[in-house]
Amino acid sequence: MPATPVRVLVVDDSALVRRLMTELLGADPGIQVVGTAADPYIARERIKQLAPDVLTLDVEMPRMDGLTFLRNLMRLRPMPVVMVSTLTQAGAQVTLDALELGAVDFVAKPSLDIARGLTDYAGVLTTKVRQAARARVTRIGMQSTSHAYDGPPGYRTTDRLLALGASAGGTEAIRDVLSRMPADGPAIVVAQHIPAAFSGPFAERLNRHSRMTVVEATDGQPLLAGHAYVAPGGAHLRVVRSGARWYTAIGDDAPVRGHRPSVDVLFESVAAHAGANASAALLTGMGDDGARGLLALRKAGAGTIAQDEGTSVVWGMPGAAVALNAAHEVLPLPAIAHRLLGDAAQPPTQG
Fold first, then answer.
1. How far apart are CA 225 and CA 233, in angstroms?
2. Catalytic one of 28, 53, 167, 236
3. Locate the Response regulatory domain: which residues (predicted)?
């Protein structure tokens, strides 16, 4: 027997976008569009009437903006929401706000030639909606609160390197880990599946929530203690070694299994150039990107962590790593920063 289709409510003020998204989603046999709404007030009534599994929500809405509606929804009736965003600086900021409020993921709405653009995104849209139906959502007010690490100082060293990788749910998971790091923590490299217009604002947001200095990575930067480097959207981030120091390397080579930046690409470079002097955590996300890279790190002697299912929005990537026996430990999100720092406190491996 086929699985029950994912029931979706499409919320967008554009009649054209509502029609196109209904057609694109409805073409997937695993998805049923049960209704549409032109604004949040109509959406509120349709949710009561239709009880959808997933909501797609435009960030710019009439009568009530998408963020206000999402905040109310996640407080009163939390459910999986996929935001439909514009690829602009303003769209990036609003989308990151939505992810902080509890939206599972987002898709980028093309600003020009919407009909063709949404058709090109059909595969991404349907995948994210199906994955969102299995996501773990939390009522606003029940999320864990991050606390900066309160252990002993003394991590300012160029001999240790930390790496993080994530996808769906990862913007908040990465923020949680970085918010618990001390100002003198080991250098951290980060790969989050995100478009080019979003990675700069994402790094800026992380910087506001962390004692470390968080920047969007550029090519050839030395990796410094007290700094975190976020892979630019649409590009791969690698770590390379020159002499006694590690540096960033940015590449526009082909996506790996559909992803650029790819967590596998980052983790494999860390395994090759830092080996046992690195530790890494694979956080929430759909698919299996990063699982092979985490296994390469474990084989190279690095400490490896997978986020547990209970605190993951989507236990795809960390679950795939666990299936490969790539993780030394499987930990809840609030424990990951402390464990990474514990690894970093060990004497570095020579050679």
1. 23
2. 167
3. 7-124
Residue carrying structure tokens 């046999």: 29
Check: CB of residue 95 under 8 Å from CB of residue 198: yes
Same fold, 6-132 and 161-344: yes
For 6-132, CATH gives 3.40.50.2300
What's the pTM value of the predicted model, to 2 decimals? 0.90
Token pair recorded at residue 292: 């092979």
> Is residue 51 within 8 Å of 26, Cβ to Cβ?
no
Report how far residue 273's alpha carbon sits from residue 267's, in angstroms, rounded to the nearest whole number: 10
Residue position matching structure tokens 């439909």: 84
Question: Which residue among 289, 308, 312, 343 is the active-site one?
Answer: 289
Active site residue 111: no
Q: Is 193 a catalytic residue?
A: yes
What's the rounded Cα separation, in Å, for the pair 97 and 87?
Answer: 15
What is the residue-level pLDDT of the chain in tens, covering all 351 positions?
Answer: 347 999 999 999 989 889 989 999 999 999 999 999 999 999 999 999 999 999 999 887 777 888 999 999 999 999 999 998 876 667 788 899 999 999 999 988 766 566 666 677 788 899 999 999 999 887 755 454 445 554 444 555 568 999 999 999 999 999 999 999 999 999 999 999 999 989 999 999 999 999 999 999 999 999 999 999 999 999 999 999 998 899 999 999 999 989 999 999 999 999 999 999 999 999 999 999 999 999 999 999 999 999 999 999 999 999 999 999 999 999 999 999 999 999 888 777 765
227 a catalytic residue: no
Sign of CA dihedral 136, 304, 219, 210: positive
161-344: in CATH 3.40.50.180:
yes
**What b/e sequence results for 133-142 when a residue is b if at least 16 CB atoms lie within 10 Å of its CB, and e otherwise?**
bbbbbeeeee
How far apart are the C-alpha atoms of 150 and 170, rounded to whole Å?
A: 24
Question: How does strand 161-166 pair with strand 187-192?
Answer: parallel
Q: Which of 85, 193, 259, 279 is catalytic?
A: 193
- Domain ranges (residues) in the chain: 6-132, 161-344
In sign, the C-alpha dihedral spanning 269, 275, 278, 281 is: positive
